[in-house]
Amino acid sequence: MRKYIVEGFNVEFYQEWLDKIIKNNDNIRDRIVAIAKFMAYLFPKIPYFWGGGHGLTKSEMIGLDKEWGTLDKIKYSGSTRWEKDKLFPKSLDCSGFVSWCLINAGFDIDSFISKFDGYVLNSWEMTKLGRIYKITDDNLLYNINLGDIAYMKGHVGIIIDIDFNSKSILIVHVSGSGEGLNITEVSTMTGCIINDDLGEMESFNHSINRTMKKYFTDVIHVDYEK
Predict the structure, then answer these.
(1) Burial class (CB in 10 A: 0-12, 13-18, 19+), 64
(2) CA–CA separation, 6 and 24 (whole Å)
(3) CB 3.0-4.6 Å disulfide test: which of 17, 21, 36, 183 passes with 158?
(4) C-alpha span between 199 and 196 (Å, rounded)
């Protein structure tokens, strides 16, 4: 289990690493996948932060944020847990994470933003990025690509692997119920989670188990080079 990001992490070291990964991938889709994998496997685990990334300018969304991991106030009203002005380690929420990956990969999301909320597309706005397929569609695996967006109402993630043998997709996403960045494998036959790496923060409810439960409902196939 990777450790969570902490205040004062070596942002220069990781930014240099990330810059090289971005430079070594030629197109937007490949860069999105590479960035998501970097965050999933190489960067310290980021916690979930309600509204994280929302309200920022485009320039503020570029690169790693040196303030991630520091305590910050929730700026938007959410559930009982995510009450405005409560202190949590600063990071991103689900749509903040996906938007951050897309922006850093060079995808221009400006034309898809329908309201002023910085440069984060919310989960509903992301459905406008491309064609939507049910996650249990028999032909799903033949109509989607790595870098496409896994979707359910109110939640999104990025597909980083497609397994034609097991008929499953691997998704990187930042979730409140999973206590941060998760790598989750979902069956395209049942729509249920096969494997899941939940976080282990002190505040986390360790009785939560999402395995064998339905989660993501759709996949948004995006033409990033359009």
Answers:
(1) buried
(2) 28
(3) 36
(4) 10
pLDDT of residue 65: 97
Structure tokens at 94: 């689900």
Q: What is the dihedral of CA 112, 101, 189, 129, to 10 degrees?
A: 10
Question: What are the tokens at 220?
Answer: 């948004």
Query: How many of the other CB atoms lie within 10 Å of CB of 126?
Result: 22
Residue among 158, 157, 167 at smallest CA distance from 192? 167
Residues 6+ away with beta carbon under 8 Å from 95: 53, 54, 120, 121, 122, 123, 126, 156
The tens digit of pLDDT for each residue in 88-136 reads 999 999 999 999 999 999 998 887 765 555 678 989 989 999 999 999 9
Cβ–Cβ < 8 Å for 68, 30: no
CA atoms within 13 A on the CB side of 151: 22
Helix axes 28-37, 11-23, angle to 10 degrees: 150
pTM value is 0.95
From CA 46, how far away is CA 141, in angstroms rounded? 29
**Distance, CA of 191 to CA of 146 (rounded, Å):** 18
Q: Percent helix, strand, coil in the chain (nearest 5)?
A: 25, 25, 50
Torsion of CA 39, 184, 201, 204, to 10 degrees: 150
